[in-house]
Amino acid sequence: MKLLSPLPRARTVAEEIEERLVLAIASGEQPAGSRLTEGSLAEAMEVSRVPAREALLSLAAKGLLVRAGARGLKVIGFAAPQVAQIRDVRIALESLAIRRAADAVRQIPSAIAGLDAVLEQMAALATTDNALALAQCDLEFHRCILRLTENDVLCRHWEDLAPHLLVLFCKDWHSQSQGLGEVALHQHLRDFIVSGPLEETEAMLEAHFTTGT
Question: CB–CB of 65/22 below 8 Å?
Answer without folding.
Answer: no
